[in-house]
Amino acid sequence: HPEQAKALAAKRLKIPVLVVDKIFDDYRFRLSLNRSLPRTMEGQARWALREGHVNVNLPQPNYTGFFYPAFLKTVDPGAVSLQ
Hints:
The protein is mostly helical. Helices cover about 50% and strands about 5% of the residues.
């Protein structure tokens, strides 16, 4: 429902619907799960360690193990690429 999404975005962002309409096609709205999410989480963990926000003696977890992609694979197998 693109028109409903545009109206909702315009209302939420407090901008004219015409502005949202002009930029709407620049965005890709698709659910996916790929390596970029765990890589980002790993980068944030390195930053937190470097900045002293977390205990340096704790092991850094394997963030890929936090995800259970089976549900998304059931709906769209091509949407998951964690390798």
